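Let us practice reading a record.
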Amino acid sequence: MPDTDNNPHHFDFDLDRGIRTQVVEKLESSPMLPLTRGAGPHASGIYALYFRDRLVYIGKASKGTTKSKRTLRARLSEHVGKISGRKNITLDDMKFRYLTLASEWWVFAAEFALITHHDPEWNASGFGSKVPGIGRPGTHRVSQFNEQFPKK
């Protein structure tokens, strides 16, 4: 195998970096909106949630490739419901940005790129739709999100 590291004529395209650069730039240039029920389009895409103007969560809605067939509007409404039922947080604390994507494959690629770039706190906290703590068989762990924002 030729030594490509020291070859000034060799180039490997970094597709991950290319996707990440473009999606970060586009998302950050999209308008910040208040998180309310009914917000967002009936389309597939990615979104970023902001708690007190700090990016805390990146998510996706893929109506064409997931069992739930959720749209951005449906997914954001789920978050509205979850936040509305919590202490120490209100919908006034929350804003969001979103992007729609024509290809379902790009939804997954864009979400991965944004999570890799931003490493949002709530993506590892138990905020999303999966239950990483209490409720999962065999565990009594309380998620970080549930500790910080207990149910009302």
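A brief commentary: The chain has a mean pLDDT of 87.
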